[in-house]
Automatic annotation (TrEMBL):
The modification 4-aspartylphosphate is found at residue 54. It comes from Candidatus Bodocaedibacter vickermanii. The gene is ntrC_2. Keywords: Activator, ATP-binding, DNA-binding, Nucleotide-binding, Phosphoprotein, Transcription, Transcription regulation, Two-component regulatory system. It comes from the Bacteria. Gene3D superfamilies: 1.10.8.60, 3.40.50.2300, Homeodomain-like, P-loop containing nucleotide triphosphate hydrolases. One of its GO terms (molecular function) is sequence-specific DNA binding. InterPro entries: AAA+_ATPase, AAA_lid_NorR, CheY-like_superfamily, Homeodomain-like_sf, HTH_Fis, P-loop_NTPase, Sig_transdc_resp-reg_receiver, Sigma_54_int. This is Nitrogen assimilation regulatory protein.
Amino acid sequence: MKQDILIVDDEADIRRLVADILTDEGYSVNQAATGEQTIEIIHSTCPPHLVLLDVWLNDQKYDGLQLLDIILKRFPDIPVIMISGHSTIETAVSALNRGAVDFLEKPFKTDRLLLSVTRNLENYRLKRENAALKERLINHDEIFGESQISQRLKLLVSKVAPTNSRVLISGGYGVGKEVVARSLHKQSRRTSGAFVSYNCALKRKEDIECDLFGNEDGDTRHQGLLEKANKGTLFLDEISAMPLAVQKRLANVLQEQKFSPLNSTRKINFDARILSASAFDLKRLIDHGKFLEDLFIRINLISIRVPFLRERREEIIPMFDYFMRDVCQIYGKSPKKLSAEAIAALESYHWPGNIRQLKNLVEWLVIMERHNIVESSSHISLKDLPPEISGASPIQVNWMKGLDVMSLPLREARELFERHYLTSQIGRFSGNISQTANFVGMERSALHRKLKSLQLNDDSKNTETL
């Protein structure tokens, strides 16, 4: 696919000369002589991959530096090369400080122009590829896991997705609520439309209304997310953080299927599926007057709960390996395996941050090894893990600290070890006796007899899940 370059210069001869050079090199070229033409092209559906922008334009409304600010405000990653025939060092420094990637003085040599264009387009391509990889890692739409809990979740999503009903997704921080939302969108009849994600908790409360509804103030028009999500899906994450006044407006939109931007009487038809998520119990917030019951009723036509990571411990290591492959691809590293002790620690840890915390751990390990902070080897060992996780390993006999084990007879020392070892393993598998027996290499009936002999049978019966 040809790369698009926009040339902005008030001199027609310069534009034609540069356009001919770039066209001969296989680029697709567009031209603009004024600021308004430039803004129109930049705001089109297909913005350019690179902009060549003259500093001094014969334009009463805009100069090159002002256009630079406008371009980078809308598309901060687009490389902008400034060109000028009569600029000072101060102007060049100002342009570079404001985000330009290069500054060329007229008349410039063809080789110098092509070198700058080629280099900056390549940097832009690499940035986009890197961003796409991170997007895939962070915003994937496949629900991970083969456990019974994950299979039930996948089945529910597959049934709900085609219905077009509004869904409220609940679950703790980092469990993957947005992944469920993206999976619902992907399997819906709106999959060809946009998926627009908005986290209310990460925004200033005073900005949320404008972000959702848009603003039409004089010549300035800001398109809101309700309009951007038209024919698609709008995912409102942590909706409990939305101010009550905005909740009321949103409830009215869901009732009337129309809305008006701020500072406008213009009515816009609303046609998007609303998916909402919250880590808080919205019913309790309603009782405390912090969430509108009317909105709750409208967004909660179907409820989906995403389980905690500790509820599906058998998926921790497969998830770790999956994230390890993706992160290593981003950083150009070879994936590493976990030692047996490290596996035990990861499976025993309680994961308060859930899948997000696991993902962050993988990236931390790769970065630390890259900077020689974590020992470089073919395996990740227990000592490579953060202390709060490595301390969770049932293999570590932390229970021995302060005990004079050497003074005990062999039988008592062995019973003491077995009691703590089996207690840790049962906790590691969330009370599942069958999985514990399989891991420690015992028949299920033999493990029950051992637990009874160690006077652990009552706890195991209370915690066993089959």
